[in-house]
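User: Second chain of the day. Same drill as before.
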Amino acid sequence: MKNRIVVFFAAVFGIVLVIGVLQPAYSQEAEEEEFMLEDIVVTGTKRDQPIQDIPIAITITSKEQIERQQIYTLQDLSRSDAGLEFGDTGAGPGGVAIVRGIGTSVHATQYEPSVGVIVDGIPQGSVNIGNMFDVERVEVLKGPQGTLFGKGASAGIINIVTVSPNLAEFEAKVGIDATFDDKLGSKYGRQEYRVMMNVPVTENSAIRAAVNFNKTEGLRKNLTAGMKDNDSDNFDLGIKYLYMPSDNFALNLKAEYAKREEDGPNLFVIRNIPPDVSLYDHFTGPECGIVSSEQNQHVCSTFDFLDTEERFGLSATVNWRMLGHDFVSITSYRESAFGPYNQNIFGYDWAPNFLEIRRWSPGENITEHVVQELRIHAPAGQRLNYLAGLYYDGEQREPDDPNARFTQHLYPPLPFRPPPGFPVPFPAITIGDTATYTENVNYAIFADGDYAITDAFKIFGGLRFSKYTVDLEQVSIDTGATDLSADYDDDFFTWRGGVQYDFTDDTMMYALVSTGVKAPILSPPGPTADPDTPPQILVAEEATSYEAGTKFSMLDGKLAMDLNVFYTEFDDYQGQECDYDEYGSLTCVGATIPNIETKGFEISTFGRPIPDLVLNAGYMYNIAEYPSEYGPLAGYQLMNALKHKFVFSGEYGKPVTDTLYGFVSFDTVYKSDKRLNTDLEGASVFPAHWKFGARIGVRQIDGKWSLTLFGRNLSEEPEPVILFNVMQGITVGIPSESSFRQVGIRADIRF
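Assistant: Same format as last time:
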């Protein structure tokens, strides 16, 4: 089946290419717009700057590329950036992004991300964002960004800019992407619906609303009769209001809401089970019918899985130009409610040689995140360009119902498989006699700038002072008394400095040193820990990076190249170690690694070298190894750190009639071996592989509508987000949406 689908796409590619070659050139307005690098302005440095003038490593994914590659989620960005990867998003903080091999791959929300996520200038903290929709561009800043962003930026920043309200005209757009389980070769179904409307309210104000809904079906299939498959429903809503009475004042208001409901998002599936395991016949026989393989999507359980989360946010951004300076105020409040949830991570009723564990949490865990930033920017066009600001960031976590307890069901393995609903005579164990409250607060003052010594030579630098306070409290559910109270605080200076030289209008070189910090962590004892167990303290992670690079353009500014080399040291790197206890329960504890070094280089290129061809490509080589003193893992690549990664995407098109434009696009990703946990077992490493995607379609030349046939992961590489060798040679993994093939249709209509 896989070979037939690849041949089908190759054949249609060839037909469309032939048609394109036979068509004459055209000059329709929608397609003749010139691509010029100076038109690409980014804001990730908190200034509006042309991308080729910024003296740091930065990659950009434009709105056109987001649509072309069908980037639905934050994790899909890994297909567009060689230096960007992601960990297990279902268990870690923030987006669990990994830049140059460094990220926060932990199963605890009290950690901060190593790669911060910024949306419209607002830090998202440890709360995951929803789907990617109505996005103007995404900028990924590589290396520590502690001076401008402070906490949660020790490895980099993902800066997302959504489309701003349009004051000039009414706009509307409707779109759908649809694949269906076992149709056209898809291994599961996913339908995504997008609606956007932009309405000018007055001549100086407008409102823009965007809705995104998607449903995933059958990512994991439950073979037990009458039980649900692994399905998910995600709803996202964003509303923005822009008031701009003059060129000197703008007020942006934003409200957002998201809801996620999912059945078993972190379920393991069996990838390999040896025939000599005691319950081999049970899993592979008629009772379950599981065929263990890397492509396995099946579980076998009478358990009702549940995982829910709601997010809500409000923000206000004020830009005010006065006395030649720009003043910026950003105020944001975000709230996330996670739960209730019902989990059995193995997805099987009866497991070999260990007690089966099921967990149920009836309450919600609430995270509240408040940000306030004030900045002043110097007048543009001066030799001295600077900004300075004050920053506050507070994140608080608490249970919605402090009386809600965490229950755990322990079932011993039985010699038979009971039918659904069988009353197993073993009581549930209620654990967790305390309610946990945490609060992380960060205050900072910062300044950054550059000075043009000559028209070609520039120096730049910045400094930030940050104060971190971490508080932890555990209150007895039975008595209301405080069982544990702890706090920790520390101060840090982060800085950067460098030089930039412009050889010509098209070529520049730079060198810089930058630092970053990730806040200290207080981890409460586990629910079954001894009452006298103190909290675990992980001191702050500090990074120092050395980087040099060059950026240049060719073909009259139509093709850009970026080359950089880097070396980064991380002191007190915040990691974790996971293992299974005698009951098969996954236990992860924080671990400080005294010193980590990463070093390598990146090459990227993007542009429109000829009118009919758009391309983006990148390659990263990165050594990110455990240090020599780190036991048996010494010398191995860090968890989730790739040594080699290559990405490429492109689109080629021609008119097929006076009103229709035909196009073909293609993308590929190569990844070297990837370690997916801290176990030394060979089964913990997913081998090097290629992934391929393709799209063919037509659109109206004026851009009013488009229709596309697409395929993702056509090579069927079953790359999981977690991979474990549990016991007795049993290998399990957690698949993601990118683990299996999809083939479907995309349609967009603009009004």
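Residues 2-22 form the longest helix (21 residues).

User: Great, on to the next one.
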